[in-house]
Every structure is written in C-alpha cells, then in structure tokens.
Amino acid sequence: MVNYRExxxxxxxxxxxxxxxxxxxxxxxxxxxxxxxxxxxGLLVWPLSDELTDTDIRKLxxxxxxxxxxxxxxxxxxxxxxxxxxxVTLTLLWSEYCERCEAEKAIPYQYTQFCDxxxxxxxxxxATMRIKRKPGELLEVDWAGNTLTVTDSITGEDxxxxxxxxxxxxxxxSYAEAFxxxxxxxWITAHIHAYQFFGGATRILVPDNL
Length: 210
Description:
Blueprint: H1 4-12, H2 17-24, H3 28-40, H4 54-61, H5 76-83, H6 90-103, H7 111-125, E1 138-143, E2 148-151, E3 158-168, E4 173-179, H8 184-198, E5 204-207
Helix pairs in contact: 1-2, 1-3, 2-3, 4-7
C-alpha cells in the first residue's frame, strides 16, 4: 500500500519527488499523482491530524475508488444526522448497517473501517461532529476556580463568595451564582436554581473534580 502520509510529510519538507520515490520504494509517477491530489484536496500540509490514517487519506484522494468490491457503501450524511440525536453512537449505527447488509445480501465493512471512513468524511467536508455535544443532553457544573470578594454594605467587611457555574456545552448557554460557602446545601440549591433558569433538566450531569 502507498504510504500517503509519508509522501505528504516528505513533500512538505521540500524533498524532491525523485528522492521521495527512492526513499519509499515507489514510482515517481505515484509520488507526483499523490502530491497533486493532496494539493487539490488541501491535504498538502504538515503535520496532518494523528487520527487521519493512510486509509482515510486514500479515501479523500480517491473518493471514487472502492477498494473492496461487493462492500455496501456508507450513507455519511445520514450517519452524521443520526449522531446528533440522543443515544445514537457509531456502534449502534454500525449494527444497523450490518443488519441492512444482511437483508440486502451485501458485505459490510468491519467496525474499524466503518469508523475510519466516517472520520474521513468529517475531515473532508469539515462537518461539525456533535457526538459529545448533543443539545440538552448534559449539563457541566463546577465551582469556579477563583473566588470573589463581596463587601457587606453595612459592616464594610469583605466576604468571600464561591461562584457556581453550570454550562450547556452544545450552546455554551451558562448560569452562574455566588454562595458564601461550598457546602452540600448550597451545591444542591445551585443546581435547582440553574434548572429553573434553563427551564428544564438535562439527562446527564457532569461535575468536574470537586
């Protein structure tokens, strides 16, 4: 298999195509073709993402080629739309894909390839992955790192205030409230006030390391 990543790396280091071909034991024509396609696809940059494998790069450079005949192609747009829904994972979509393949007497891709091709689609189209940031699914909560100082208007005394922060990570919509201490009663009260502010409750609460 052609080492696409290494061709791109060496080209970005200004090695000649002949030097790259000699180093990787491939033809100069192959190097020229890969470099030209990589430049057209915006991939002639280094470093590339560590998650982008040679298989991913091949799919991006040669989207029309099917390496394994008889394999059922993936509906990337459908997968991306479904992943935005609560409870939907790549594992679930792969199981459904395998069921469709069985019904259609087609050969399915293995799970690793299934995920690799989807990642390549996301990278190529610059699609926003929302697997971990589904609207309304979870609320991230914590006491803010720095305390505030509140001055008592009557005594003039400086009082420490601990700030509770709750954020919906998909929209970054946030709620904050200050308390005189971080005791359990205030922690629970802060959550009640946050949910009243948001107008609903999320399925998951994610606290930091308190």
